[in-house]
Write a structure and sequence with these properties.
Blueprint (H helix, E strand, L loop, with lengths): L3 H16 L10 H25 L8 H8 L11 E10 L4 E2 L3 E4 L4 E3 L4 E2 L5 E11 L9 E4 L6 E5 L13 H11 L7 H10 L4 E9 L13 E8 L2 H11 L5 E2 L3 E3 L11 E3 L7 E9 L6 H16 L13 H5 L10 E10 L9 E4 L6 E8 L1
Parallel strand pairs: 10-11
Antiparallel strand pairs: 1-6, 1-8, 2-5, 3-4, 3-7, 4-6, 9-10, 12-13, 14-15, 14-17, 16-17
Helix pairs in contact: 1-2, 5-6
Length: about 375
């Protein structure tokens, strides 16, 4: 496809062939301004053609074009969801809260269910939904403001953290799911099972372990069985996807057991497991090289590492060497580095993970900065 400069040069040569080689076509001339305008229109038309051509493949399509293509694979873009949190309202018994709205310390608004009534105890517990979609977090005690005051409603608070929502699925994430979805009609039942699970609405990650031997393997999976581990999605939908795609005579293993209707003819229950989050402690020692190393850059390093850890597949190991790239990618210009990494250590604990904030131990903008804390 010709570039803008190619088109402009072509029109300049055509103009000279018509009006003569001595025509004045510098940038301050009216003729050159007109040629540049026409060149831009032609170039935009080429870009439209390129966009339409690229929309024929899921590897290059974007936006609405990609949405249309993935429907051929039986999937669709995951819509954004909203964070939810349990709040406690205190007031006079019998007080009606028609459309209550509360606010947290970050100024996010949270909507209460409509037409709530304070019980005889004067304490009402309900689920509030954030008005902004995506990963909006709130810590215990951060919701204290009532934005829709009503007579008899005194206070509001939250004793627990919010269950965060998720943003709209990006083109990159949707392409990754599309690549897996083409395995649905595959000749390998294991690949088809994995693809069917990932196609379930709400599933964000999954991994299917297989034991094809005649004995129980070290993971505790019985012989000739599969052990799916699935994050997100409804239990019944996941069980149906497993039962539909797994091969005849293959057992299922896991801590979640779902008994399906007889039409699936699976016999007994279909089993799978939910992943257990593991707390990962990352300690980074950073040496500042220039004055461009700021607190904002330091926070971006942490966010880059957290985002990398959140994208790992279920059961993946965390290697300290793998964290150098996400940490260094926080720099705007790696040819002129503003810091260097002296060391990265990773300590993987076990147990249920909460969202853990990094605790900073920093010598501000000079010397060595040591970052310690937990990543979930």
């Amino acid at each position: 496809m010709p570039t803008f400069q190619d088109i402009q040069n072509y029109l300049i040569e055509r103009a000279k062939s018509i009006f003569g080689q001595d025509i004045y076509l510098e940038n301050d001339s009216q003729d050159m301004q007109y040629i540049a305008t026409v060149s831009k229109c032609i170039y935009d038309a080429f870009l439209c053609c390129q966009l339409a051509y690229n929309s024929q493949s899921p590897q290059t399509a974007i936006g609405a074009g990609l949405d249309s293509l993935v429907k051929l694979n039986g999937i669709q873009r995951n819509a954004a969801t909203y964070s939810k949190v349990e709040v406690t309202c205190v007031g006079e018994p019998g007080t009606k809260i028609a459309a209550g709205v509360v606010q947290d310390t970050q100024l996010y608004r949270w909507d209460l269910p409509e037409n709530q009534t304070l019980p005889s105890s004067g304490v009402l517990t309900c689920i509030a939904t954030c008005e902004v979609s995506g990963n909006i977090t709130v810590a215990p005690g951060e919701i204290q403001s009532i934005l829709t005051p009503q007579y008899g409603w005194y206070t509001v608070s939250n004793s627990g953290a919010a269950t965060p929502g998720v943003p709209t699925e990006t083109d990159t994430e949707l392409r990754a799911r599309q690549n897996l979805s083409v395995a649905l009609p595959s000749q390998t039942p294991l690949n088809a099972t994995e693809a069917a699970i990932l196609a379930v609405d709400g599933v964000t990650r999954s991994r299917v372990y297989e034991n094809y031997t005649n004995t129980t393997d070290p993971n505790g999976i019985p012989s000739h069985s599969i052990a799916p581990v699935v994050e997100g999605g409804e239990d019944t939908d996941i069980a149906q996807a497993i039962a539909t795609e797994k091969t005849v005579g293959c057992g299922t293993y896991g801590t979640t057991q779902i008994t399906l209707p007889s039409q699936f003819s699976v016999g007994g229950s279909t089993n799978f497991s939910r992943p257990n989050d593991v707390i990962i402690n990352v300690e980074i020692t950073i040496v500042q090289l220039t004055s461009n190393y700021t607190d904002a850059l330091q926070e971006q390093i942490v966010e880059s590492i957290k985002n990398y850890l959140d994208t790992l597949e279920i059961g993946a190991s965390v290697e300290s060497s793998s964290l150098y790239y996400p940490a260094l990618s926080a720099m705007d210009n790696q040819k002129k580095p503003s810091f260097r990494i002296s060391s990265i250590t990773v300590d993987g604990g076990s147990g249920a993970a909460e969202t853990v904030s990094l605790a900073w131990n920093a010598v501000a903008k000079s010397g060595t900065v040591t970052v310690t804390g937990g990543l979930s």
